[in-house]
Amino acid sequence: MLKRKKDGLDQQGQLLRTSAESTKGYLATLMDGYSKLLIDDPVRPFREENLAEIANNVDYGILAALEGTWVSYNANYNQNIKRPSLGSGIHTTIMPSPGTDQNRIPGKFSFDTEEYIEKLTFEIVPGGVRNRGGASELFCGAVKYDQTIKSVNKVEGKPDLEYAGIHEENGMYLWLSDVYNYAATKETIEKDRGIHAFSQEDHQKYGYKGEYRDEPLVQVKDDNGNVSYILLSELKEGQEYFEIIPAQEIKPGDGITGPYFIPDYSISRSGVIPHGSTITLLGDIAPSGPNYLISGAPQFPYGDATWQPDHLAISPTMGGAGASVTNPINLDQPAPAWVHETLTDENDPGSNKIYTQRILANDLYPYCVRPDMRLRDTLSGQNVANYVLIQMSSKMKTGAQGGILNVPFVNRFVPTVEVDFRMWIETVIEDGKEILQLQYEQIIFFEFDFGNDGGTTSWPHIQVNTLRKIEDIPSDQRKIIEEQFFNAPSGMSMTTPATNAERAVNPPVGCPYHKS
Questions:
Q1: Is residue 220 in some structural domain?
Q2: Residue 234 domain boundaries
Q3: Phi/psi of residue 336, each to 5°?
Q4: Residue from 66, 69, 65 nearest 32 by CA
Q5: How many structural domains are present in the chain?
Q6: Alpha helices in 192-260 (DSSP H)
Q7: Which of 102, 213, 267, 308 has its Cα between 20 and 30 A from that of 322?
Q8: Model's pTM, two decimal places?
Q9: pLDDT tens-digit profile of 96-132?
């Protein structure tokens, strides 16, 4: 987790901070002073009389940069983008095929991908949220979020684009770095006391006659083997003891020697999704060397390196389209010829290619295969001064874990088992002005059906988008956003996407993915 050296709260400190922001830039100022918290770093003591000051000055970390309303920033405004898009976001979704269940035909799936627009609002919760853990106290900087997504489709014969609500989500991000040590005091001990002053058991068994025993008793023996009990503080150096009777009360100052709590991560995200899943993700700011604010633009791969299974809509358990890291498909080139051919046992032994052919043949190629290439291409030609990368997951390799809870239907048919999330907060310079830009990639893994070998298949559901504050997008794009999110209901419409409906009515002839 990260810690930050607290600035003075006086007027001079605030003036210095404002001056630094004007010269260094917003993100550079916000991230100034952060470093990794270590076990030998000083621990701040907590005192009740300082509660209001601590709560009112809680740290929100990088989450402070999120406050406000963010909306889709369409890549069409970037002159380096040769291929126009309907919406800045792209999702890929794999679901069980109609009529299937988990006990018959293995691995039959339905694939959908669409472009979308989005409104994502963050609101800072004033004051620190106090978590009490005895000798340890954690104050969280909480930020509420609310997300609405609408798909964008072009329907043949209709001049206007069609928008349909496809996702709603709300929850909170927490910055988890304000940790304090709360040692016992005479007042807290007396206030929370829950034992009798005098213990008959202590007197009868151990001969102890005092009140509120706040030390362990130890059994000792004299030279003749006679047993007695004394307080631990009465034990002489090197004296042998044979039993320990735990203390019944604590002393003023107990807890000051630890154990000290260091959160595994600086950031958590808890979200509620109306399909019936509740998620908790944990994560941190990803550094580049010692730097948490990274100069330049985020780096994404090109050419053969784009075939990285961790970011593809085709997981290795789906067969990988016959490709691999050592034998990749170059997603910066047109799809392989077989994608638009009629496949048979002769040219596709084992049916590996035809299994995922529809994904590579989609009109949104290559983004339908690797959606974060849309983020890469949106950055093309932009002047990105610096960025902060947040990485989070519900499933960590070691240590503290997040988690997912699903309603019974989701658990039975499409269990959601993992969520991985990356978010870039970027400083973009346009016309001499500093603009904040947000990009994210979220990969949700479903598990349903089984493979020919009986193994479990992992199905990626990927979302990516580029957003800016609503005041920082062009006026014509802002008009669409206002019409769809501020002047219209946001209810989800789970109807069949227009593109799928057209295919059902007018199926293509021959190979379903043939291109003339």
A1: yes
A2: 186-245
A3: -55, 155
A4: 65
A5: 1
A6: 200-201
A7: 102
A8: 0.89
A9: 888 887 777 677 899 999 999 999 999 999 999 999 9
